[in-house]
Each structure stands twice: as structure tokens, then as C-alpha cells.
Amino acid sequence: VQLQASGGGEVQPGGSLRLSCVASGFTFTDWWMWWVRQAPGKRLEVVARVSGMGGRQNYGDSVKGRATISRHNANNTVHLQMIHLNPEDTAQYYCARDPAGVVRGQGTQVTVSS
Description:
The protein contains no helices and ten strands. The protein starts with a strand and ends with a strand. By secondary structure, it is an all-beta fold. Strands 2-10-9-4-5-6 form a six-stranded mixed beta sheet, with no helix packed on it. It has a four-stranded antiparallel beta sheet with strand order 1-3-8-7, with no helix packed on it.
């Protein structure tokens, strides 16, 4: 299983970004896909999840209304669009196959700073 995340970087408060993840090594449509994040010294936090066919999405309380998760099964990708970013969103973001991040990629760093 490989989960390759990209799209992170440094953004100013109030900004937006779009993370992408390319998956391989398993039957993509069989799995809900998750974005989870971890800030230094904090526990892993679920950001969002999307069902196998993309019809259902759920979001963590801290990002509700600011995040949109989507997937494109034709090319085994999952995306996370976030708007109105604030410094509390600073974290390493991981594409994962489970909410605990047991199966996850290397992640991409998002830093929100002025």
C-alpha cells in the first residue's frame, strides 16, 4: 500500500489550500479514505473522511464548514480543500486508510503563519 500526499506548504491566515493523495497497492473503491493530521505535541486528529464511491463525507468539528474532501476513483486520488485557514491548522497532514492512521503515507506539512 502506498499513499502519496502532496500540496502542503506555508499559507497566511485566512488562506486556502488543496491537498492531494495518490493511492496504490489496494482496491481503492473498497475503502473509505481519510485525512488525518498531527500537530507537534498533539494527538492525531481526524480531519475528514469520504466513502468508497464518494457519496458520503464527514468532517472533524474543528474543520466543519472549512473543509471539503473528495475523491476521483478513476485515478485513485483523494483531495482535501481547506479555506479560512488559521494557525491551529498547522500540522502534518496524512492521507490514510483508517482513522487511527495505521495505514498512511508520509504526509505533507501545512504551516499557517503570517
